[in-house]
Amino acid sequence: MKEKVDRFERILKTRVKGREEEQLLLAGQKSEEEQIVSRLDTLRSQKERALVSFGMQQGMLLSPQEMWFQRKSIDVIEKHICDGDSSLCDVRQEIEATEVRLVEKHREVQIMEKYITSMVEEWRTTLQKNEQNEMDDIAGIRHCARGRKIL
Protein backbone atom coordinates (compact mmCIF):
# COMPACT_ATOMS: atom_id res chain seq x y z
CA MET A 1 0.00 0.00 0.00
CA LYS A 2 2.91 2.32 0.81
CA GLU A 3 4.26 1.88 -2.72
CA LYS A 4 0.87 2.76 -4.19
CA VAL A 5 0.62 5.92 -2.07
CA ASP A 6 4.18 6.89 -3.02
CA ARG A 7 3.43 6.35 -6.70
CA PHE A 8 0.33 8.54 -6.55
CA GLU A 9 2.22 11.21 -4.60
CA ARG A 10 4.82 11.32 -7.38
CA ILE A 11 2.01 11.70 -9.91
CA LEU A 12 0.56 14.48 -7.75
CA LYS A 13 3.92 16.28 -7.66
CA THR A 14 4.05 16.14 -11.46
CA ARG A 15 0.56 17.58 -11.73
CA VAL A 16 1.33 20.30 -9.20
CA LYS A 17 4.43 21.20 -11.20
CA GLY A 18 2.31 21.39 -14.38
CA ARG A 19 -0.15 23.67 -12.59
CA GLU A 20 2.68 25.91 -11.39
CA GLU A 21 4.03 26.14 -14.94
CA GLU A 22 0.60 27.24 -16.17
CA GLN A 23 0.47 29.84 -13.38
CA LEU A 24 3.85 31.21 -14.46
CA LEU A 25 2.73 31.29 -18.08
CA LEU A 26 -0.43 33.15 -17.09
CA ALA A 27 1.56 35.66 -15.06
CA GLY A 28 3.83 36.29 -18.05
CA GLN A 29 0.87 36.73 -20.35
CA LYS A 30 -0.80 39.17 -17.96
CA SER A 31 2.43 41.14 -17.75
CA GLU A 32 2.58 41.25 -21.53
CA GLU A 33 -1.03 42.42 -21.62
CA GLU A 34 -0.22 45.26 -19.20
CA GLN A 35 2.75 46.30 -21.32
CA ILE A 36 0.63 46.39 -24.48
CA VAL A 37 -2.11 48.39 -22.76
CA SER A 38 0.49 50.84 -21.48
CA ARG A 39 2.03 51.15 -24.94
CA LEU A 40 -1.42 51.70 -26.47
CA ASP A 41 -2.18 54.44 -23.96
CA THR A 42 1.08 56.14 -24.87
CA LEU A 43 0.34 55.85 -28.58
CA ARG A 44 -3.17 57.24 -28.15
CA SER A 45 -1.85 60.24 -26.24
CA GLN A 46 0.80 60.76 -28.96
CA LYS A 47 -1.93 60.66 -31.58
CA GLU A 48 -3.98 63.23 -29.66
CA ARG A 49 -0.98 65.54 -29.39
CA ALA A 50 -0.22 65.12 -33.09
CA LEU A 51 -3.84 65.89 -34.03
CA VAL A 52 -3.87 68.98 -31.81
CA SER A 53 -0.57 70.12 -33.30
CA PHE A 54 -1.87 69.50 -36.82
CA GLY A 55 -5.07 71.43 -36.08
CA MET A 56 -3.19 74.38 -34.58
CA GLN A 57 -1.30 74.92 -37.82
CA GLN A 58 -4.52 75.81 -39.59
CA GLY A 59 -3.69 79.51 -40.11
CA MET A 60 0.01 79.03 -40.70
CA LEU A 61 1.68 78.85 -44.06
CA LEU A 62 2.91 75.31 -44.60
CA SER A 63 4.13 73.60 -47.67
CA PRO A 64 2.13 70.61 -48.92
CA GLN A 65 5.14 68.45 -48.13
CA GLU A 66 5.15 69.53 -44.45
CA MET A 67 1.42 68.88 -44.19
CA TRP A 68 1.89 65.48 -45.82
CA PHE A 69 4.67 64.53 -43.37
CA GLN A 70 2.55 65.58 -40.38
CA ARG A 71 -0.43 63.63 -41.67
CA LYS A 72 1.81 60.65 -42.42
CA SER A 73 3.14 60.66 -38.84
CA ILE A 74 -0.46 60.53 -37.59
CA ASP A 75 -1.16 57.62 -39.95
CA VAL A 76 1.92 55.76 -38.65
CA ILE A 77 0.74 56.23 -35.06
CA GLU A 78 -2.74 54.94 -36.03
CA LYS A 79 -1.16 51.87 -37.65
CA HIS A 80 0.83 51.20 -34.46
CA ILE A 81 -2.39 51.53 -32.46
CA CYS A 82 -4.16 49.12 -34.81
CA ASP A 83 -1.28 46.62 -34.54
CA GLY A 84 -1.28 47.02 -30.76
CA ASP A 85 -5.03 46.39 -30.58
CA SER A 86 -4.52 43.22 -32.62
CA SER A 87 -1.69 42.09 -30.33
CA LEU A 88 -3.80 42.85 -27.28
CA CYS A 89 -6.65 40.77 -28.66
CA ASP A 90 -4.27 37.86 -29.33
CA VAL A 91 -2.76 38.06 -25.84
CA ARG A 92 -6.20 38.16 -24.24
CA GLN A 93 -7.23 35.05 -26.18
CA GLU A 94 -4.05 33.31 -25.00
CA ILE A 95 -4.81 34.38 -21.42
CA GLU A 96 -8.31 32.97 -21.70
CA ALA A 97 -7.01 29.64 -23.03
CA THR A 98 -4.36 29.50 -20.29
CA GLU A 99 -6.96 30.21 -17.61
CA VAL A 100 -9.08 27.32 -18.90
CA ARG A 101 -6.08 24.98 -18.81
CA LEU A 102 -5.13 26.25 -15.36
CA VAL A 103 -8.61 25.57 -13.99
CA GLU A 104 -8.49 22.05 -15.42
CA LYS A 105 -5.04 21.39 -13.95
CA HIS A 106 -6.17 22.75 -10.59
CA ARG A 107 -9.17 20.42 -10.69
CA GLU A 108 -6.90 17.46 -11.49
CA VAL A 109 -4.63 18.33 -8.55
CA GLN A 110 -7.59 18.55 -6.18
CA ILE A 111 -8.91 15.18 -7.35
CA MET A 112 -5.49 13.57 -6.85
CA GLU A 113 -5.15 15.14 -3.39
CA LYS A 114 -8.56 13.81 -2.35
CA TYR A 115 -7.77 10.36 -3.73
CA ILE A 116 -4.42 10.19 -1.96
CA THR A 117 -6.01 11.39 1.28
CA SER A 118 -8.67 8.68 1.05
CA MET A 119 -6.01 6.04 0.31
CA VAL A 120 -3.93 7.16 3.29
CA GLU A 121 -6.98 7.13 5.56
CA GLU A 122 -7.93 3.65 4.33
CA TRP A 123 -4.36 2.47 4.87
CA ARG A 124 -4.23 4.02 8.35
CA THR A 125 -7.55 2.41 9.27
CA THR A 126 -6.29 -0.98 8.07
CA LEU A 127 -3.09 -0.61 10.09
CA GLN A 128 -5.02 0.36 13.20
CA LYS A 129 -7.33 -2.64 12.80
CA ASN A 130 -4.37 -4.96 12.36
CA GLU A 131 -2.65 -3.48 15.43
CA GLN A 132 -5.83 -3.86 17.45
CA ASN A 133 -6.20 -7.49 16.34
CA GLU A 134 -2.58 -8.16 17.34
CA MET A 135 -3.12 -6.53 20.72
CA ASP A 136 -6.32 -8.55 21.22
CA ASP A 137 -4.43 -11.75 20.35
CA ILE A 138 -1.63 -10.89 22.79
CA ALA A 139 -4.17 -10.05 25.50
CA GLY A 140 -6.01 -13.30 24.81
CA ILE A 141 -2.80 -15.32 25.02
CA ARG A 142 -1.83 -13.67 28.31
CA HIS A 143 -5.32 -14.16 29.71
CA CYS A 144 -5.26 -17.85 28.81
CA ALA A 145 -1.76 -18.25 30.26
CA ARG A 146 -2.84 -16.71 33.59
CA GLY A 147 -5.94 -18.87 33.71
CA ARG A 148 -3.86 -22.07 33.49
CA LYS A 149 -1.50 -21.01 36.27
CA ILE A 150 -4.39 -20.32 38.61
CA LEU A 151 -6.01 -23.66 38.03
Walk me through what this model shows:
The structure is a single chain. The chain has 151 residues and is an all-alpha fold. It has one domain. Helix content is 94%, strand content 0%. The chain has helices at 2-56, 64-150. 0% of the residues are buried. The mean pLDDT is 90.
Secondary-structure blueprint:
Layout: H1 2-56, H2 64-150
Helix pairs in contact: 1-2
Question: Which terms summarize this structure?
Answer:
single chain, mainly alpha, 151 residues
Task: Give the number of helices.
Answer: 2
Strand content: under 5%
Biggest β-sheet description: none
Mean pLDDT: 90
Note the overall shape: rod-shaped
Provide the low-confidence segments as ranges: none
Count of the separate structural domains: 1
Helix and strand content put the structural class at mainly alpha
How far apart, in Å, are the first and last alpha carbons?
A: 45 Å
- Name the helicity range: over 70%
State Rg. 36 Å
Listing every helix as H and every strand as E from the N terminus to the C terminus, the arrangement reads HH
The total beta strand count reads 0
Question: What does this entry show, briefly?
Answer:
This protein is mainly alpha-helical. 94% of the residues lie in helices and 0% in strands.
